[in-house]
Amino acid sequence: MNEIIIIRKARLHDLEQLYSFEQGVIQAERPFDQTLKNGLIHYYDLEQMINASHIELVVAEMNEQIIGSGYGRIDKSKIFQKDPSYVYLGFMYVVPEHRGKGINKMIIENLKNWAHQQGINELRLEVYNNNLAAIKAYEKIGFTRHIIEMRFNLDE
What we know:
The protein is of the alpha+beta class.
């Protein structure tokens, strides 16, 4: 039986599930990022993101269950860049049992359409350098590697 997946704008009553997804993102990223604090942390102000006019926070839903999320946020480009703004993508998450079904691609397509409606032609996202599976997945749908951010910790 084919399950119907819909991508829709997140609503305030989705917050509990979205907070759970946020912790899933953080758990997945901890092995790649030694700068993260131990214990419970938050990346996002999800309630603010739902209500913000410059952010499109969406969820993937199947059988009235939320199974994925992602957002697009309009950011200003640096003054020397040709496009004045771009849409930054983040909070890309799909519950483990639904990975590999193209849900992340559906979320990105939805956000791509939203960016286009805003008159913006560029999407950007960040991926940890060692997260080869994520890099491969994003390249598969058309993203290209652009820049590597480097760090040096003076305490090490």
